[in-house]
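Researcher: If only I could read backbone structure tokens as easily as an amino acid sequence. Walk me, if you will, through where the backbone shape changes along the chain. I have put the entry right below:
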Amino acid sequence: MSATPRKRLTPEESRDAALAAARELLLESGPQAVTLKAVAARIGRTHANLLHHFGSAAGLQKALAARLAEVVTEKIGAAVLRARAKDPQDHDPREVVDMTFDAFGREGAGALASWMILNGNEDALDPILEAIHDLVDKIAEGHDDAGGTVHEETLQLTLMALGDSMLGGPMARALGLPRDKAREMAAAQLRSSMAQP
């Protein structure tokens, strides 16, 4: 019996398949599972093939971080622009808070970022930081942000979401608070900031 030949993929298709598999592994088993060997096995490619595309496991993680950041900031940016199109009285920043917290929690960006830092791969965070910076610049465009309010709010929201992704559940339980208390606090802070002239 002959083996079924593998479908030839373009370099871009191969890279996309690898990143999709890496994301699945991240969500299923955590950042430590995002290895070249595991991703290659998942997509039926060789370790050498992935080395060609990413150079190393750190390169794969950096590319995954860039992909996550791109998808997440696009969603958050769209939510902010939708909110701006509404009457400020009708806008609740909770949608943006939820998207940010979900990006770091359910989407795995917090676990991946923490893993990269703990492994000394801080450079791999650059795509996340650049994507957030670009998003903030886009959000601040055409608005008076002389006091850096948008930058400060973004810093606060990002750090709260990152912290919540790592310790939110255990801390809320330990303090006898609802699991989404940090989200409520972040939304309240943004509402208060929006209410100030």
About this structure: The two ends are 75 Å apart (CA to CA). The chain has two domains: 1-55, 58-195. The chain has nine helices and no strands.
